[in-house]
Amino acid sequence: MIVMEHPAYLIALLSLLLLASNWLSKKPVLRSFGIALLVIIAGAVASNTGLIPTGANPTYDTIFNYIAPASLFLLLLDVNLAQLRQTGLPILIVFLVGSLGTVTGVIAGMFVLGDSDLFQGLYAPLAGMFAGTYTGGSINFNAVALEYNVMENGLVYGSAVAVDNVLTTLWFFVTIAFPVVLQRWLPRKQGERVSEPAENKLAPLPAADESARLDLGSLSFWLALSGAALVVSDGLTSALSGLGVTIPSIIILTTLALVLAQIPFIHKRKGNMFLGSWGIYLFLTVVGAFCDLAAISSAGPLALMLLILVLITVALHGLFTFGTAYLLGYDWQLAAIASQANVGGGTTAMALAKNFGRNELILPAIIIGSLGNALGTYLGFLVAGFL
């Protein structure tokens, strides 16, 4: 086994990247970046310099399939359902308009580029793939690709994946920066950021009381509970699928977390936010690792055309999203989280809400992210059929 792909090596190096990002985030110059942005940059730098793999890897799969959803589950255990009534509708409106912006952007981009021999007969499927992925994440990207057998064309599929990964990473940067810039020029009342103890003002990880009481007992409890929740959600998904009912496991996992969060015994325990934050930041480091710049440069003209397509797509998506927030008077952070749910999916949207300290938007981010998983597939096939 190549050392770079050894699970122990990867976990050690990813943890070091997270440690370095946490340290850098305390420095005055980089404090405004937030740890979420820094870990993505660290992952991208490490992968593009050959320290860690840039593509699929069993360790990455474990982080995506187990650590990220378990971390999401732990973070949701602090959700206050009463706040959802105040924030749910605005973020849903922005998300749906953003989805419309994505579809408009893909169609406009494909008409600007026109069909080309570089697409190798996959003009319409590629449009559907990008419409799907920028509505609700990569699940929809692969759903459309599988239907049209795009994966059988390694060059086209690989180029599309590389461009998508780079754009998704860049858009996370944009959704962190836009609210800061727009708030400076067009101030809006924003939700209050979760406060931190006075002695820990410069330390975004852990925030608030995330590390409180994370002793051996609490750590064991949270690991056991999150593991059991994953088993139950996956088991119920499989059982329901056998009955002809398709419900994504993330929906069941979210529901379990919300029910448990209302139980005083669960809600009063501390340490879940600390452990959940660690998992999410580890996940974002891997997101950065998938930003493979070499893959784009090697694909040449095809990658350039796809890059133009996705830039047009997200430009119109961003115009629709932040334009709606401007017209309806919504705050910029809410719009950024809704946009991230479109382009990156529910997990990165939740991470962005966490980065902003907007815990009241964590649940809405997950909900619209799940909606995007369903809506994106339909819109992807709709766009592919239209073209």
How would you sum up the global shape? globular
- Gyration radius, in Å: 20 Å
How many helices in DSSP terms? 16
Which segments are poorly predicted (pLDDT under 50) over 5 or more consecutive residues?
Answer: 194-209
What is the helix content?
Answer: over 70%
Distance between the termini: 45 Å
Instruction: Give me the count of strands.
Output: 0
What fraction of residues sit in β-strands?
under 5%
N to C succession of SSEs = HHHHHHHHHHHHHHHH
The profile of the biggest β sheet is: none
- Alpha-beta content class: mainly alpha
Mean of the pLDDT scores? 82
**Total tally of structural domains:** 1
Layout of helices and strands, plus pairs?
Elements: H1 7-24, H2 35-48, H3 58-76, H4 81-113, H5 123-136, H6 138-147, H7 154-185, H8 216-242, H9 249-261, H10 264-267, H11 272-289, H12 293-299, H13 301-328, H14 332-343, H15 346-356, H16 362-386
Task: Characterize the structure shown.
The protein starts with 6 loop residues before the first helix and ends with a helix. Residues 194-209 have low confidence and may be disordered. It has helices spanning 7-24, 35-48, 58-76, 81-113, 123-136, 138-147, 154-185, 216-242, 249-261, 264-267, 272-289, 293-299, 301-328, 332-343, 346-356, 362-386. It is 74% helix and 0% strand. With 387 residues, the protein is mostly helical.
Short key terms for the protein model shown above:
387 residues, mainly alpha, 16 helices, 0% strand
Compact overview of the structure:
This protein is mainly alpha-helical. The protein has helices at residues 7-24, 35-48, 58-76, 81-113, 123-136, 138-147, 154-185, 216-242, 249-261, 264-267, 272-289, 293-299, 301-328, 332-343, 346-356, 362-386.
